Amino acid sequence: MRANYRMQRLFVPDDLEAGRRFETSPTQSHYLANVLRLAEDAEVLVFNGRDGEWLARISARTKKSMQLTAVEETRPQPPHPDLIYCFAPLKQGRLDYLVQKAVEMGAGVLQPVATQHTQVAKPGIERLRANVVEAAEQCGILAVPDVRESVRLDRLLADWETDRRLIFCDEDADTNNPLPKLSALQDRKLALLVGPEGGFSEDERRMLRALPFVTAIPLGPRILRADTAAVAALAVIQATVGDW
Does residue 240 carry a pLDDT above 80? Predict the structure, then answer.
């Protein structure tokens, strides 16, 4: 069932079931009351990443808070996406874009990774999570991706579950076409690793290429910025072996 984009959507932490009442956050209350100017009995859509999407009605309103009542489920909760997206964090504005697009493209887990050329070793996790929620609200997504703490590349690879294939974008690949290698990964659990603006170091490339659970793919003949490469890689993976 497609999302209703005409109604305001809000992410809430509360459990959702018919008749349950809960309060919005101060920021949400301000937005509903002062920006959208919604009054009592107005309706919005709410979701929590667990219980599907619900129609909710404003049942009480004060100057500082709003109380909502869940009325009925409008969309059931879909399965959580299985694709893990591993990325070297970028500077803030482009990192916000990267995270939002990963959510839109169906990533189930966002894993920041510190590499030798990473620009930001420890990104603000709460800001990443806020961007995830905002993207989910705007795009009708119900299965909200998890955001993990940053980890060094060598630690990520040492702890890797080897039954999950890790696809890494290799700018030094000897071909421009990623499709043959991706087509061979049908019915596999997948993850994607995109490097930093300066690319992976030679040591990191050698380490990745030596691992049996890693598949290196190219992204065509052009040099792409890291955030552009992320969107391109997610698109080609979803179109070839993902959920498109």
Answer: yes
